[in-house]
Amino acid sequence: NAGVMQNPRHLVRRRGQEARLRCSPVKGHSHVYWYRQLPEEGLKFMVYLQKENIIDESGMPKERFSAEFPKEGPSILRIQQVVRGDSAAYFCASSPSGTYGYTFGSGTRLTVV
Amino acid sequence: GESVGLHLPTLSVQEGDNSIINCAYSNSASDYFIWYKQESGKGPQFIIDIRSNMDKRQGQRVTVLLNKTVKHLSLQIAATQPGDSAVYFCAETSNTGNQFYFGTGTSLTVIP
Hints:
The complex is a heterodimer. By secondary structure, chain A is mainly β. Chain A has no helices and 11 strands. Chain A is globular. In chain A, 35% of the residues are buried. Chain B contains no helices and 10 strands. Chain B is an all-beta fold. In chain B, the strands form 2 sheets. In chain B, strands 1, 3, 4, 8, 9 and 10 form a 6-stranded mixed beta sheet that branches. In chain B, strands 2-7-6-5 form a 4-stranded antiparallel beta sheet, with no helix packed on it. The relative contact order of chain B is 0.32. Classes of the chains: A mainly beta, B mainly beta. The interface between A and B is medium-sized, with 23 and 21 residues.
């Protein structure tokens, strides 16, 4: 059983470019969560999705950030026109039902230069 | 060794000693708590969880204690080993919640 798969593991973007982060949940999990972690800080919730639906995006910045979880394929976190402050580790978690049975991926480390 | 979360974010212990990592949570409505271990360059790894109807839960070498009166959670690691070196986070949520709220973490270093 594969766990949560995130790719790429490392992503370098220049200021103004777009970053696309992918997350494939554990097989059978229909709930996906994205978190951001700044250096030496805890994880901060960004968005919660189920297939084709955004359930809670209260942690997402209002501009430049979007997320989707299509019927087929991985969940995508998209950051447009990246700035240096977007440099962080982005973690995806999945669960079969709500917040019970959460499993985290290994994260994507985004560096904006 | 013992830490007090935000006030002492690092903890060093001798191999074989017991470790205690503390966490204060803020939301009295939280009813489910998890301790996570995060090694450098990796994602959070589940260690142990506890629901608010319990005040103690034991796993293999780990024990979580929950004091709802003072909103305090602790993780005890018995016979700490070098492989236990990592950052430890407590996380809280509620039955109706859509997310976990993470503490800032405590860095545990085990000295061989």
